[in-house]
Fold this sequence. Notes:
This protein is mainly β. The chain is built from 2 helices and 9 strands, in the order βββββββββαα.
Amino acid sequence: MAGRYPRAMARTDVLDLGRLALSAGEARRLELEVGLEPVALAGQVYAPAGMVPATLDLTRTVGGWSLRVRLSIDLEGPCMRCLEPASKGIDVDAREVDQPGGGEDTDSPYLDGIELDLRSWVRDEVVLALPVHIVCREDCLGLCPVCGENLNESGSDHEHPAEPDPRWAKLSELKLD
Length: 177
C-alpha cells in the first residue's frame, strides 16, 4: 500500500485525493480528525472540546468524486438565555458530488482539483446543523430584563414593582395640601 493514506490519521484539514490512487468505481472509508475553529453565533463563541473525529467515504466516479462525511460534535459556550455554560451535541451526515461538466449542482466548492478542503466542508456543515438557540437546558428561564438576575436561580417570587405610566408621570409632582 505504498503511497496510500493509512486507515487513521492524526489531523486532516486538506486531503490530497490523488494520493489515494482510486480508479473509477473504487471506494475508500477513512477515519480522520479535523481541526474546527470556534463558531460565532449571535455574538457568542462556541468551540469543540478538541479535534473532531470524522468518517469520510470517498467513491471515485468517471472524472469526479462522490463524498460523504459523518461526525458527531459537542460545541461548548454560553447559554443564549442565561449565559451559564452550555453544550450542544450536533450530528452531521453530509454528501458532496464533484462531477466536472455536470453543471452547478455537481461542482463541489470544497474540491480544488484533487484537494478536498475537509476543514471548510466540516465547518459549513456544522454551522448549518446548529440550532437557532444553544441553551443550558430546554426550560432555561434566562436573565431578568430589569435587573439581570438569573431567573433559574431566583425562583418564582422574583419580581419588580411596576413602573408608572410615563404619560402620568407629571401627576406625581402635584402637591395637594
